[in-house]
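for the recovery benchmark. tokens below, seq after
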């Protein structure tokens, strides 16, 4: 990357300036990309614990890459995104002193630290394709390694009973162990699910391999790589990646394609009903999860049903809490005092609405959408990220914020507001 500056990328008046094209990343740029992606896959559970707050390596790499981008002179500020984040921070800061719940300034600070980088991306200039290609190539390469690790892990843990390979978390010293709660087994079979050893849970392995499949399909389409990544996805025994992949291709690419989306969704539902009726033991490893939505103590209930109880409790407190939330950091503090008889997970939509209200949720969602769909990433990748961010527990996970930020680093060449995917990653 060269050291030049430009007006904000998303500013309505920011033209495409005649910069020299970037034909390749510098050595420092390549090193930062590798460090960031490797830290997400292999170092996310290693942290320096400051009191009760674990500073994970992926958070450090996120900060390092952002600092490198800004100091190199290649960063462009998105003014609309800055306005949205300032409004959100102002809302959160205003709410905390008047909250009846136990709120936290540190939680608001963490949210800021994760989404301030979303205000910056590469300066819009011609021929940024090599930068996007390099980032994708590194991600797919590292994801292929973790998929292979997951396959070996699945065999060794379940067949050879090598329980020490279940998760790196259990062998790390307390001094550098990150915080977290983990699900390891299939509730209906007792099989220990693969998580690639270094990732937190099998759902993480499912999501990262599914994303790699999508990126590889949009770029080089190497059969061996797709097979390896697909095997890693299946080894996770988790449906998270499959759901996100379905959303990537089924969600409409424009308003004109909404009827097609409805038809495809109906067709997919019909196919799933037929497959479910086959009562196949293999397919039931995934279809069996559907019954969890009504069963307390299951993953699906904790992720989707139980958080609705928290949202209802928030809305019952009055219109002020409904629109402005209960205060940053109040979700789990109020959950602890509620003494529920079942687990409540931390989905993005529930935590945001509970802590920042409907207004705060809209502000952060708008910032997220602006980042996605003004990037050069294919629309399918944007849809994948949107579904994952809305449905899964990603809102305060530094690793996922880093990966989403990194893969949307290159702006769209079609205009200030983009329309993600204008610069398609055509198959080579």
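predicted aa per position
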């Amino acid at each position: 990357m060269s050291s030049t500056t430009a007006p904000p990328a998303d500013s309505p008046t920011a033209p495409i300036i005649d910069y020299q094209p970037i034909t390749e990343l510098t050595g420092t740029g390549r090193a930062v990309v590798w460090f960031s992606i490797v830290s997400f896959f292999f170092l996310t559970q290693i942290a320096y614990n400051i009191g009760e707050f674990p500073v994970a390596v992926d958070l450090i790499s996120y900060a390092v890459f952002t600092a490198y981008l800004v100091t190199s002179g290649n960063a462009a500020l998105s003014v609309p995104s800055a306005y949205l984040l300032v409004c959100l921070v102002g809302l959160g800061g205003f709410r905390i002193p008047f909250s009846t719940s136990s709120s936290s300034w540190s939680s608001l600070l963490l949210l800021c630290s994760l989404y301030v980088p979303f205000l910056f991306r590469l300066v819009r200039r011609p021929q940024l394709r090599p930068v996007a290609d390099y980032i994708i190539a590194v991600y797919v390469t590292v994801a292929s390694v973790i998929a292979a690790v997951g396959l070996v892990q699945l065999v060794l843990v379940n067949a050879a009973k090598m329980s020490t390979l279940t998760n790196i978390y259990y062998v790390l010293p307390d001094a550098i162990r990150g915080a977290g709660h983990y699900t390891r087994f299939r509730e209906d079979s007792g099989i220990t699910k693969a998580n690639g050893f270094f990732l937190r849970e099998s759902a993480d392995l499912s999501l990262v391999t599914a994303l790699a499949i999508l990126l590889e399909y949009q770029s080089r389409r190497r059969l061996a790589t797709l097979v390896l990544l697909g095997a890693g996805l299946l080894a996770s025994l988790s449906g998270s990646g499959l759901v996100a992949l379905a959303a990537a291709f089924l969600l409409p690419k424009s308003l004109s394609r909404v009827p097609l989306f409805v038809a495809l969704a109906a067709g997919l539902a019909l196919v799933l009903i037929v497959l479910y009726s086959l009562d196949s033991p293999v397919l039931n490893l995934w279809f069996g999860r559907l019954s969890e939505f009504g069963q307390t103590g299951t993953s699906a209930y904790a992720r989707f049903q139980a958080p609705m109880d928290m949202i209802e409790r928030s809305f019952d407190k009055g219109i002020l809490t409904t629109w402005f939330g209960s205060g940053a950091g109040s979700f789990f503090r109020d959950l602890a005092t509620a003494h529920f008889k079942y687990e409540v997970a931390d989905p993005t939509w529930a935590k945001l609405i509970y802590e920042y209200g409907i207004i705060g949720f809209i502000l952060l969602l708008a910032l997220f959408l602006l980042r996605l769909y003004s990037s050069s990433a294919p629309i399918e990748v944007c849809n994948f990220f949107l579904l994952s961010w809305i449905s899964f527990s990603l809102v305060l996970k530094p690793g996922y914020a880093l990966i989403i930020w990194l893969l949307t680093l290159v702006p769209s060449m079609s205009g200030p507001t983009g329309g993600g995917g204008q610069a398609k990653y055509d198959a080579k």
